[in-house]
Amino acid sequence: MVDLDISELGSEDKDGVAEFVESKLAVKADRSGDLVTFEDKNERTRVTVPEIRTYLKRYLHKKELRKEFRLLSEDGTLKFVKRPAGSTESEDEEEKEEKKK
After folding, report:
1. Closest to 10 measured CA to CA, from 52, 70, 65, 88
2. In contact, 17 and 35? CB cutoff 8 Å
3. Number of domains in the chain
4. How far is residue 59's CA from residue 66's CA, in Å, rounded to a whole number?
5. What is the pTM of this model?
6. CATH of the domain at 60
7. Residue 36's CB: how many other CB atoms inside 10 A?
8. Closest-CA residue to 78 (of 8, 28, 16, 22)
9. What is the pLDDT along the chain (101 residues), one digit of tens a residue?
10. Calculated CA dihedral for residues 55, 94, 65, 30, nearest 10 degrees
11. Structural domain of residue 42, as residue ranges?
């Protein structure tokens, strides 16, 4: 079971994100307010957090929201977070490379 906080997304995107992931993976999405819970459709297949995260990023890219939002993992919950104004993906990548050093 994976929880996703969609409180910062727009209303159209809130509806579409669960449908998108359900269409790509064998999961069932239950939405209650701004929280979407993804559960495996059957016991034999096991969908992992990284798999769900990958398709959430693909959703952002498809809707051209990748420059506006990022996806964070916090205490087993995934969360869409708005990027600060003026921040770009290349700046984020540079910060990651500096942290590695």
Report:
1. 65
2. no
3. 1
4. 9
5. 0.77
6. 3.30.1360.210
7. 20
8. 8
9. 889 999 998 888 888 999 999 999 999 999 998 999 998 888 888 888 899 999 999 999 999 999 999 999 887 789 999 988 765 555 556 556 555 65
10. 40
11. 2-100
